[in-house]
Amino acid sequence: MVKLVLMNSEEYQKYITSAIKSYAIEKVLSGNWNQEESIRKAEEEYTRLLPIGEKTESNYLYTILNDDKAIGVLWLARKSEKEGFIYDISILEQYQGFGYAKETMTQIEIVGKELGMNKIGLHVFGHNKVARGLYEKLGYQTTNVLMEKEI
């Protein structure tokens, strides 16, 4: 069973470096940004959303553990008193396909409820059919490109 543990500063630094690159690639693949501007724009976006990194208020950045081994990350933000938003969920490539993302999504619903949330939303890039399929199976409803689920 997976476990969610809040990131420390060292884990956050590794996360942010990787996340900026991944986000830039996704924005280019989706046709939103061109290659030349993508890293700069991704850095600006992360700086805006997480101005003080893992200590940014109303943001919960987790390392996903399985048997005490880090297998991925999840970022949940409080958007209002009762609503959360998953900005990022990522399972390391070598651990994909084993149900860890599904387990993680179940765990974050428990965490969301503990934080007083009754709804969690997320964004999925249109070209990410695997993720869309998972979220739909878990009960998330499509609202434009955003998906959300009552929890």
UniProtKB/TrEMBL annotation:
Gene3D superfamilies: 3.40.630.30. Residues 18-151 form the N-acetyltransferase domain. Keywords: Transferase. It holds the Pfam family Acetyltransf_1. One of its GO terms (molecular function) is acyltransferase activity, transferring groups other than amino-acyl groups. Transmembrane segments: none annotated. InterPro entries: Acyl_CoA_acyltransferase, GNAT_dom, N-acetyltransferase_domain. This is GNAT family N-acetyltransferase. It comes from Psychrobacillus lasiicapitis.
